[in-house]
Amino acid sequence: MLSEQTKEIVKQTVPVLEEHGNEITKVFYERMFEAHPELLNIFNKSNQKQGKQQTALAQTVLAAAKHIDHLEAIVPNVNQIAHKHRALQVKEEHYPIVGEFLLKAIKEVLGDAATDDIMNAWEEAYGEIAGVFIQMEKAMYEQAAWEDFKSFKITNIEDQGTSMKSFEVEPEENIKVPDLVAGQYITVRIKPTNDENLALRHYSIYSVKNDGKIRFAVKKEGFGEKKGLVSHDLHNSYSVGDTIEISAPAGDFKVESADDKKILLLSSGAGVTPMLAMLEDEGYKGKEVHFVHVNESEKDVPFKDEIAALNAMNNNVKVTYHLKERDGYLTSDELKAWIDKDVDIYLCGGITFMDTIFDELSKLNIDQSDVHFEPFGPKMSITNV
Ligand code: HEM
């Protein structure tokens, strides 16, 4: 239990952290990787380059500091991060390392302003926060369909639109693929060409077919210096018959609407992947589904054949493509026509798309908390904590 004094000190340091948060986490990563280069086999180097992970961690630290006397307020967000940690195989023994270097970074950046009282308070607070994560992740490890990463053979690869490929894989080891939940993702581990470290990425599954295979899709991310290390390798260097490693399915994004509710599945770009799995699953179950996909142009739309087949098979399914080249940006006027009190909204795409849609929905008095969503990027960066 933290003392009242410790909680007070932690809360009082929030403005300082807000001011220096990104700098502290930048120093933290630099120093941690110098001392523990083996952790570069877990962390996403592309995110590091773009500063994405820095923001996510800084925001989580702030969220925790603000809610230090009622940490349960951050539990919904911790749940989502814990799923990712479990999928990446972040273990209990990693937490003291992160704690040590986070505290050292606070001291280095704040200098004399970080008094012994402040440092002691933060050490205690970190222990408390880490405890919440460790406990939640322990339960997830116990429930995971298999331990660690296992080898899978690629059995099929197909082009999807202009920048995506779908992959079908089956286990090479003696494990059983569990019943998959639409909205879940798997985590792929490869050794990218010309890189000394292993690299891990999460990819959503696009089908819940129960035939011992896993199906996921990969969008080619970025280009030039910022080209996605793993996505480009999977696109260019992997073929049918090759082996990749995968950890057990994870994630808490799923359809959780009452039977009498209709659902609007709204996606952009690679966000189509979990939505397609939901369309497949809910379409067969007979739920009324409106599937809306936003993309640049007709040629970019992934999974056109699969979507058309599900549309043709199920009278309860309606499909709308919003092509920016043809229709401009998706506005509240258009959204209004698709939403009424009986519709639950599910949203998935990149951070910019999600932000835009939340802005448009707010014009219709629909709040972020009314929407089920999964951003491709850290969720905390668009969640108000
Ligand atoms: C991802 C917070 C401990 C490794 C994340 C994310 C957050 C976060 C907010 C982004 C999740 C998202 O994508 O939505 C924290 C906090 C920790 C903690 C508050 C301590 C209390 C650790 C530890 C490790 C670790 C101990 C392992 C050494 C990672 C990795 C990612 C991640 C590898 C994926 C993102 C990337 O690779 O860039 N964490 N984390 N975290 N965390 Fe943690």
From TrEMBL:
Whether NADP counts among this entry's keywords is yes
SUPFAM superfamilies the UniProt entry points to:
Ferredoxin reductase-like, C-terminal NADP-linked domain, Globin-like, Riboflavin synthase domain-like
Q: Which residues form the Globin domain?
A: 1-138
What superkingdom heads the lineage? Bacteria
Q: Which Gene3D superfamilies match?
A: Globins, Nucleotide-binding domain of ferredoxin-NADP reductase (FNR) module, Translation factors
Q: Which reaction does it catalyse?
A: 2 nitric oxide + NADH + 2 O2 = 2 nitrate + NAD(+) + H(+); 2 nitric oxide + NADPH + 2 O2 = 2 nitrate + NADP(+) + H(+)
- Please name the Pfam families in this protein's record: FAD_binding_6, Globin, NAD_binding_1
Has UniProt tagged this entry with the keyword Acetylation?
A: no
Question: Which EC number(s) does the record attach to this protein?
Answer: 1.14.12.17
Which cofactor(s) does the record list? heme b
Spell out the family assignment given in the record's similarity comment: Belongs to the globin family. In the C-terminal section; belongs to the flavoprotein pyridine nucleotide cytochrome reductase family.
Q: How is this protein named in the record?
A: nitric oxide dioxygenase
Q: What organism is the protein native to?
A: Mammaliicoccus fleurettii
Lineage start:
Bacteria, Bacillati, Bacillota, Bacilli, Bacillales
